[in-house]
Amino acid sequence: MLKPFEVHVQARSLECFQPELTGAEWAALQASAAQARDRLAGHTFWNVNSTARGGGVAELLPRMLAYARGAGVDTRWMVVEGTPAFFRITKRLHHALHGSRGDDSPLGPAERACYDEVLRDNAEELLVLVRPGDVVLLHDPQTAGLAPTLAAAGARVVWRCHIGCDTLEEEVVRAWAFLAPGLAAVRLAVFSRAAYVPPLLADRSVVIPPSIDIFAVKNQPMAPQVASAILGHTGLVALAPDAPDPVFIRTDGVPARVSRGADIIRLGSAPAPGAPLVVQVSRWDPLKDPVGVLRGFALLLRESPGLRADLVLAGPSVTSVADDPEAAATIENVTAVWREQPRFLRQRVHLASLPMVDLEENAAIVNALQRHATVVVQKSLREGFGLTVTEAMWKSRPVVASAVGGLQDQVRNEVDGLLVRDPEDLPAFAACVRRLLEEPVLAARLGAQAHEHVRVRFTAVRHLSDLVALLEELDARAERSD
């Protein structure tokens, strides 16, 4: 029998934000915390998703929960278990909500039975823990089917969809039809942007963009020479003879050393420590279009053979993400395309699977890679919200992103990054990357403005206030229905 498991999160005080905020902003944050405590007095705020590591939701939850617990709110995190067949179905739904056919497998009665059976097993354990009046925030298609059971037990159920499509294409309609029975029981749905809200949820939806935690290991300050040392010890760049220790600071304040290496597919040696790097960090997912990034970079080098730059495509070790059955096939496809390239290009492209045994070590490696990058790209074909883009912008990196989904909200073209209107337009993508490599003054200006844009719009302070507003809306709807 499948059972969900709990991920324990240590409380983190909101005091760390005070130096980053104005007096008025700090007072507003304290007021939000007090309001959250009042509205949840005697109840628990549950978050339920399908993986504890890998992907944006697993990145977002532990830090937001830590701050909520630090504010005095009883917040807990449960992860549902599933079978390979279940995760193939939910990955198919993931693609469909983006408007993509994915593997084109059916979403019929057999898939419905499998999906319901897995969630029925998980629900039995959740019913032991969740009490009437608790708030349960379910995340993404993997958990939507839990809503009727939890709502019948008296929980106030909210469903958050981190993905979506701006138009109701055929695949999108198919996905919503599959999810509709579960979603009928949710009181509110949360989306990253208004364009993602489907008609069946139009009367009970709110928009809350995701955020990053500026104090997380992935976003903590890091000196350039330390970033270079971490990448050197990981194997992503050549290790400088005088490199300092590859040390980062864990969440609990204890220094730690990066000791694990990345699994890297390359021809020849690692890039020199000072070599310009074009970097994309994402899950190994076809919608992130790593093959398109590789082909676009190949076009760039064919057109500008004298340009100094290497490409690093990095993602998590494919064995570490339980709910993504396509990861291994995706990296195999990228590797096959890499092998087709001429020798001079293969020497400049590095495919890196980053270690995930220690999640904070992984975060330090990603931090170092983003800070070391000359240009960070996210050439997604579809994207709900690109956390890695916001992370890079916080680090004042110039970014090139596709003008799709939430990326359009994160990056203002020519203001704090460059957007490629058509994600499949390889010449346009190559031209944007070349521009940032060849115009360092422009790159620095965009990076500085990107940092400020994130500080104002995409940090945990704004996100926490949005969650308090969500609780207010839940209470208001309950009062209207009484």
From TrEMBL:
Keyword RNA-binding: no
Domain Glycosyl transferase family: 274-452
Domain Trehalose synthase N-terminal: 47-198
Superkingdom classification of source: Bacteria
Coiled coil, from the record: none
Stored InterPro entries: Glyco_trans_1, Trehalose_Metab_GTase, TreT_GT1
Keywords attached to this entry: Carbohydrate metabolism, Glucose metabolism, Glycosyltransferase, Transferase
Pfam families the record matches: Glycos_transf_1, TreT_GT1
Family designation: Belongs to the glycosyltransferase group 1 family. Glycosyltransferase 4 subfamily.
Record's subunit section: Homodimer.
Protein name per UniProt: Glycosyltransferase
Species annotation: Corallococcus caeni
